């Protein structure tokens, strides 16, 4: 009778002890799990172009050492697909930076690369930037001296040309042959790619013979036209077209009575000129050729012989001189 009583008491003690332990366990506060900080910045994409996978891969490709883990964990990135454009928002240290890109072609891979460049440049820590210094020069090779860049001086607007002129009128049709020597003064003014030209010349004496008449004339050539320059390295080629005029005075040398007259010829002039120097040079020599056409030449007439022919309607010439920029 004593043994069963002893077993009952032992079982009661064990039950009471288990109840006390469970109550103590219930009385202790439950352990709260601490939040785990993300290993990389939060990147999200709104839309399919570019996708989140493309953006993440492009960012990781730009940071070979450490990948996305090298960027600040507290940053947040969001990319919005806006159709023909897309917007990238980067929040770092409570500062919002936004960049909007336009891409009508919807090249998703290119969008991901552009977004990744903006993200990395905004979030990359300064300690990951490596400053590469050039290697010091060796003692065997002397240090390279800096070379000053060659700056081409723009051509000046005004150019003064002084030259000697030789004009030849061939004996065409009923006109006599005339050779005239003189000089000319020309002024050229640049207007962008073109230049205006004003010329004045003097050929003081030129002799001719026609139908037994010996004559002499003096000429004052005039011109007003345009010039088109073509720079060709160390020299320049110019094409010219102008309205030409010539005031000439002609007189007979073997007539019984003095016979003379002064007239004005109107026509056109075409020329080609080569300057042996760059357009920016101050003073350079030049050589040129030209042709003159006077469609309505005057008649050569004396008393009492009458008409003996006409003055030349076509002239060929050459010029050699010096061109000075002002």
Description:
With 326 residues, this protein is of the alpha+beta class. The protein is built from three helices and 14 strands. It folds into two domains: 42-126, Double Stranded RNA Binding Domain (2-Layer Sandwich); 158-325, Porin (Beta Barrel), CATH 2.40.160.20. The chain has an eight-stranded antiparallel beta barrel. The chain is rod-shaped, with a radius of gyration of 49 Å. The chain is 16% helix and 48% strand.
Which word captures the global form?
rod-shaped
Q: What's the number of helices?
A: 3
The total beta strand count reads 14
CATH topology of the largest domain: Porin
CATH architecture identity of the largest domain: Beta Barrel
The helix/strand class is alpha+beta
Overall tally of structural domains: 2
> Mean pLDDT across all residues, rounded?
80
Overall radius of gyration: 49 Å
| CATH hierarchy class name of the largest domain | Mainly Beta
Strand and helix layout:
Elements: H1 2-27, E1 42-46, H2 52-62, E2 76-81, E3 85-92, E4 95-102, H3 108-123, E5 158-169, E6 178-191, E7 194-210, E8 213-232, E9 235-252, E10 260-275, E11 283-293, E12 299-302, E13 306-310, E14 314-325
Helix pairs in contact: 2-3
List keywords for this structure.
alpha+beta; Porin; 3 helices; 326 residues; 4-stranded mixed β-sheet; 2 domains; Double Stranded RNA Binding Domain
Write a brief structural summary:
This protein has 326 residues and is of the alpha+beta class.
């Amino acid at each position: 009778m004593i043994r069963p009583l002893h077993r009952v008491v032992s079982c009661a003690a064990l039950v009471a002890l288990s109840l006390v332990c469970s109550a103590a366990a219930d009385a202790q506060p439950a352990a709260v799990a601490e939040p785990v900080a993300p290993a990389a910045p939060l990147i999200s994409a709104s839309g399919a172009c570019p996708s989140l996978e493309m953006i993440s891969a492009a960012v990781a490709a730009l940071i070979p050492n450490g990948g996305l883990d090298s960027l600040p964990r507290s940053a947040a990135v969001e990319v919005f697909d806006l159709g023909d454009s897309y917007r990238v928002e980067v929040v770092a240290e409570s500062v919002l930076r936004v960049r909007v890109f336009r891409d009508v072609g919807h090249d998703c891979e290119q969008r991901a690369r552009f977004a990744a460049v903006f993200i990395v440049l905004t979030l990359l820590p300064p300690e990951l930037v490596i400053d590469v210094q050039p290697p010091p020069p060796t003692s065997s090779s002397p240090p390279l001296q800096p070379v000053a860049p060659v700056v081409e001086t723009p051509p000046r607007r005004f150019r003064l040309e002084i030259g000697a002129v030789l004009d030849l009128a061939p004996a065409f049709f009923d006109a006599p042959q005339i050779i005239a020597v003189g000089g000319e003064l020309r002024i050229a003014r640049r207007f962008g790619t073109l230049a205006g030209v004003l010329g004045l010349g003097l050929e003081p004496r030129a002799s001719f013979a026609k139908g037994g008449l010996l004559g002499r004339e003096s000429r004052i050539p005039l011109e007003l036209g345009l010039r088109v320059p073509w720079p060709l390295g160390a020299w320049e080629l110019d094409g010219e077209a102008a309205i030409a005029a010539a005031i000439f005075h002609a007189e007979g040398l073997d007539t019984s009575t003095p016979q003379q007259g002064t007239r004005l010829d109107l026509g056109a002039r075409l020329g080609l000129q080569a300057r042996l120097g760059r357009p920016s040079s101050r003073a350079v020599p030049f050589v040129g050729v030209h042709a003159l056409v006077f469609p309505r030449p005057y008649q050569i007439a004396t008393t009492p012989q009458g008409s003996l022919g006409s003055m030349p309607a076509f002239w060929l010439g050459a010029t050699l001189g010096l061109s000075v920029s002002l």
